[in-house]
Design brief:
- The structure is a single chain.
- This protein is of the alpha+beta class.
- The protein is built from 26 helices and 30 strands.
- Strands 22-23-25-26-27-28-29-30 form an eight-stranded mixed barrel, surrounded by six helices.
- It starts with a helix and ends in a 9-residue tail after the last helix.
Length: about 900
Amino acid sequence: MAHLPVVVATLVIVAVTLIAEDISKNAYLEKSRAELRNKATQVALTIQGAIIANIETGRGLANVIRTEPDIDTERFNQLAKQLFHNFSSMKLIAIAPNLVVSNIYPLEGNESVIGLDYRDVEEQRDLVFEARDKNELTMAGPIDLVQGGTGLLVRYPVYIDSLDKGRYFWGIVSAVLDVDFFYQYAGLLDEDAELDYAIVGKDGMGASGEQFFGSEDINEMDPIRVPVDFRIAQWELRVVPHGGWSVPSSIFWLIRAIAFAAFLLVVVPMAIVFKLSRERMAHLDAHIESQRQLASVSKRFELAVDALKLGVWEFDPAVRRFKWDQQTREIYGLDPDSDINFVDWKERIFPEDRARLFDDGRKAIASEGKFCTDYRLQMPDGTIKTVRVSALGWTDDDGKMIYVGVNWDITKHVAREEALKEARAESERRYQELVKAKTRIEFNALHDFLTKLPNRRYVDEFLNGENGAPWPFEDAENSWLLKVDLDGFKEINDSFGHAAGDTMLLKVADMLRSLKLHDEFIARVGGDEFIMLCSSAQNRNRPQELAEKLIAMLHNPQNYKGLTCRLGASIGLSNWADAKESPDKLRSNADLALYQSKQNGKGCFTFFSQPLFQTANEKRRLADDLLRGIENREFIAYYQGQYNAETHRLVGAEALARWAHTKRGLVYPDMFIDLADSLGVTGEIDAMVMEHALETKQFWADKGLNIDRVSVNVSAKRLSDRDLIPGLKEMDFDPSHLTFELIESTFLDRSAPQVAANIRRLREMGIEIEIDDFGTAYASIVSLTHLLPNRLKIDRELILPVTSSEHQRELVHSIIHIGRTLGIGVVAEGIESLEHAEILRVMGADILQGYAFSRPMTREKFFTHHAKGSRFHVA
C-alpha cells in the first residue's frame, strides 16, 4: 500500500497521455476524411457527367428514329458515324425494329449480329422486355466485351406516335459504352495515384449491387462512399487513402514530451521519497524484531531451564568462588538463602568420583575448553544423586577466565538406563531362545517327524538349490534318483495298526541309512515313499546295487512285538541327464519307472527309458483326448443284431461303444476302456451310449423297424452311481425295451450295497439284466440263484472252439443247462459261422450274436441291413 501514491500518479499521467493522443488521432482522421470526401465527389461527378453525356447522345439517335421510323442503312451509318466522331467512348450502336437487329455500327466484325432476335437471347431478353414494357432506358454492366475491355450496355425503347396506328412500340436502340475510357478519364487508373478506388452497383443497382472495380479489401478500411447517379441507374464510389488510413506519429511527440516532463517532475520525486521512507521503516522494523527475538530467546531459555530443572552457575578459578542459582541449590539439597563455598561443594561429591571430577576440571581449565561429565552426590539423608555438569569458559571485559555451566539431576535417567540394560540382557536371552526354536521349527518343517529324514519340501528345495546345500548333480551322466514305494505297507497298517506301520518305516529308514554313502542323500517324501540320490561315477552299477540290496533287505520278514511283518519294495530309477537337468522331470521320470515296476508285479526295480516315456506320453495324450471327447460328446454306438436261435429272426441289438475321434478316426473300446476306467469316466461314456441307443430305438421305430430290446453295457462305476435310477426315471422311454449288460464280476459283487440296490430298482422298473462275458470271471451258482438275471451271455472265447472241441462243447452245454435249470435265458456271442449257429441251437441257446449274422454298424446301415424286404430281415 505504501507504493499507492506513486502508482496512482503514474496511472493518471499515462491515462491523460492516452486520452490526448486519441483526441489528436480522431481530429486528424476527421480532417483527412473531409478532404478525401471532396476529392471523391469530384471524381464521381467527372464519371457521372461523362457517362450521362454519352447516354444522352444515344437518346438523341432514338429521338431521330421516332421521326424517321423507316430509316435506312445509309442514313443510320451517317448518324452513327457522326456520334462515334464526337464521342470516342462509344464502342458499338445498333437498332432493332420489332426487337430484331437490322443495322449495327461499326459493321465490321459484327456481321453475325444482323438479324439477331432479342427474344431468342435468354441472357438479354429480360432487360429488353423491361425497357419495352416500362418505356424507360435500361443500363447493364459493366460487361466483358468480345473486342476486349469492358462496356456499359444502354438500351433505348422507341415508341412511335402515328395518326394511323396511334402510339406503338417500334423497337430498341442499343449502345455500348467503353467503361475503361471513363476509368481513365476520371483518373482511376493512374499508377501514381494517392488514393485507392472501388465501385459497386453493377447493372446500376447502387450500393446494394455487386462490386465491379477495385480491391475488395477497400470495403474493410472504412472507405468514403459517394453516389454516382445516372438518373436511369446508380453506382457508389468508395475511396480510401493508398495503403489505408494512417496517422503520422509526429502529431504525438508533443503530447508524449509533456507527459514525460510531468513524470520527471511528479513521479520521480515521489518515488525517491518513498524509497527513503521505506528504508527508514525497514531499519526500525529490524531493530524492533531483534529486540522481540532477544526477549523471546530469553523467555524460551528461562522456560527451558525451568522445565528441565537446570541449575545455572558460575565459577571463578582464580578465587575458587561459585555463584549458584536457586535450582542448583535445590539439586545439592541446600536452602535457597544459604551460601556455598568450594569446601562445602567438595564434601558433597561422592568420594569415589572426586579424584576423576577434579582431574577433568583441571584439564578443562588448563586448556580453556569445554567441561562435561557425570558425578554422584552424597546427600545429607544418605541418598545418592547423579548429576551431569556441562560448562564452558569465557573471558570477561577484565580479561579474566570465567566458567559458566549448568547442572541437572539425572538420577532417574541413570536408573532408567540400568533398567534398560537389564531389559536388553533379558531380550538377548529370549532372542537366543527364539533362534533355537526357529532352528527346531525349520528342522521340523524340512524333516519327517517320524524318521527324521528330509521331507518332500526339503527335497524340492534341495533339487532346486534353494537350501544352501551343495548341488548333488555336478556330473549329470552319473547322477541318479531312486524312488522307493513300499509294497504291503497298507496291509500292515490295516492288520497290525499304525504303530506297527511306524515301526516298519523306522526300520526302512535305518536300512537306507546303512546303505547310504557319505555323499548320498535319502529322504521320506510320502506315507510309504522314499528317495535316494546317488552317483555312479565311482561304481557304474551303484544305482542297481542299491536297488537290489534294498529289495533283498526288505524281503526278510520284520518282527514287531512277536508279529511277523512282510514288506517289499518297488523302485523306479531316473538319470539327471535323461531329465535334461530338470528337477521336475527327474521326479516324473522316476515316477514313470516306479509305475512300471508296479505293473511288472512289484518287488522289482525299473530304469527310466525313452520308450517308457513315449508310452506314458501317448497315454497322457490319449487321456486328454478322451476327456475332450467326453466334453464334445464324441462317443457313439455301433449296433450288432441278436437273433432267435430257432428262426434266426432279429429280436434285439447290442449297442457297442465307439469313439468318433476327430483325428484318429473310429476308436474301439479295447483302446480306451481301461484308460477311461482309470480316469473314472466310464459312467459318462455309458450314459452317452445309452442316450444314443434310446434315440436309435426311436429312429428305427419311426422307420418301421421294431426291435424287442436294445442292450447297453453298464460299468461298475455307473452301476454304483446313486443318481442312476433318478436319472433314468427322468428320461422318456419304455424300460421294457432296454437291457443292461453287466460284466460278471460287477454283477456278482454283493459287497457293494449301492450296486445291489440299483440292480433291484432296475428290475422293479422293468429293465432286463444280462450277465456279459459269462464264464470268464468268478461267478458261482449260489450268486446266480440270489440275483437271477434275465439272461447269461456266454463269452465268445468259450463259443469259438465248440466246432472243433468236444470238451468245449460239453462245457458250453453245461452252462446252457444251468441257465435253463434256473430259468435264465442264454445268449451265445461270437457266432462266426452257420455251423456255430446250428451247434448252439441244438444245445438249447435262446439267442445268437456274431459275425455270421451281422457285424457292428451304424444305426443307418443297421436299418438298411434289417429293413423289411431285405435278405437280412431274417438272418
